[in-house]
Structures are given as C-alpha cells and as structure tokens.
Amino acid sequence: MERILLVEDDAQITASLSAFLQSEGFSVETATGETQARQLVEQTAPGLLLVDVQLAEGSGFGVCAYARSRGLPVIFLTASGDESSVVLGLDMGADDYIAKPFRPRELVSRIRSVLRRYGKEKTLVPLGGVVVDTEKGRVTRDGRDVYLSALEYRLLLVFLSHRGKVLSRSQLLEEIWDAAGDFVNDNTLTVYIKRLREKIEEDPADPQIIRTVRGMGYMVDA
C-alpha cells in the first residue's frame, strides 16, 4: 500500500483529504510545514508527496526540492489561477499540479498516474486468499469476484490502510460513518464487520484476515 505525505497547513483540508485518500487505499502521513515534511521524508519513506505551495512555515518549493533530491515524485496543490507558482513548481521538477478547489477523485487519478510513471503503485493488494484491486475497486477470492457494498468496501480499505495496527471500534466508526450516506453506530458496525467476514474469510467463525483483539478492537496483519 502506497504511502503519501500530505504537506498542508490548513487543518480542515488536511483532515478531509487524508480521510478520502485512506478510503481510496492509500496510507497518509501529514506535515504542516517544511521542517516537519523533511523529517517525515526521512522517517516514513513516502512514495509520493502532495505539497501545498503556500505554507505557514517554510516553502512548498523547498519541500519539492528536498523530495526531488531523493527521487520522490511531487504533486503541487496550488491556488486557482496561480500560474507563476505552477510554472516555477514544474521547472523545479514537480510531476504535476492541481488547482484548489479540486475534485478529490481527479486528484486520486493524477496520483495514480504519477505513481504508475514511477512504477510504484501497487493496485493489487493480497490479503490471504483475497486480492483487492484498489484501482478498479474490485475484490476477488480464489479468482472469483466478491461483491461488497460501498460501506463494506470502505471498511475493508480502512483495514488495509492500517495494516498491522489495532483499530478500536470508535476509530472505525470515525473512518466510515459517512460512507454511502449511511448512518453507522456501534451496533451496525458489528453487523458490517460480520458481513465482511462472511464474504472474505474462509471460515467466518474463525477469522484469519480481520482478527479480533480482545478488549482493544480489530486488526489486519501487515
């Protein structure tokens, strides 16, 4: 699963964009300024950076130069109509740019396009006998299609984006509450986890993919 570093100092944009990217199967780290971004580049080894040109601390261009010196692709987020910033960013080696406000799915399409050029995107994610194609939104088990509802698929992507980490029920509710426009409470979360296990587990009564961690929550192994 590809890791993205989002460098943005607007908390609202950061929260909404991070949640959307995670729902699309990406792992997301965030930084609010140039110094923190440089540190996270070294600590987390992201596959791609999304960088706001205007930062409260440092410069988006500085982040771009640092990332490019390490061979990492960069997509700039720019203010609408800021042509000079776009030109400068591309001249510095940025791979693409998208003007705010942007359509999230268009951004995801551009991210995947850049990752394909670098040969980094892993659209097929194996999970036991299950394979998730995050580009096509397709799930198969032993070569046969598994048909998931929008919320079940969103729930599966949440687990994939946090592989190796225990997710509490409250964390899961925060991630999926608005998927497909459905209201999800603690009781319905139990139902959706049960349904998802019935569709992807070899033995739903003894789940090996989505494991229960007693007293803590659920986890999918890394």
UniProtKB/TrEMBL annotation:
DNA-binding region per UniProt: 122-222
Modified-residue entries (4-aspartylphosphate), positions: D52
Residues covered by the OmpR/PhoB-type domain: 122-222
GO MF: phosphorelay response regulator activity; transcription cis-regulatory region binding
Biological processes per GO annotation: regulation of DNA-templated transcription
Record GO cellular component, one term: protein-DNA complex
Entry-linked CDD domains: trans_reg_C (cd00383)
UniProt KW Transcription keyword: yes
Source organism superkingdom: Bacteria
Keyword Iron: no
Keywords on record: DNA-binding, Phosphoprotein, Transcription, Transcription regulation
Domain Response regulatory: from-to ranges: 3-115
The protein's role, per its UniProt record: May play the central regulatory role in sporulation. It may be an element of the effector pathway responsible for the activation of sporulation genes in response to nutritional stress. Spo0A may act in concert with spo0H (a sigma factor) to control the expression of some genes that are critical to the sporulation process.
Record's protein name: Stage 0 sporulation protein A homolog
Organism expressing this protein natively: Vescimonas coprocola
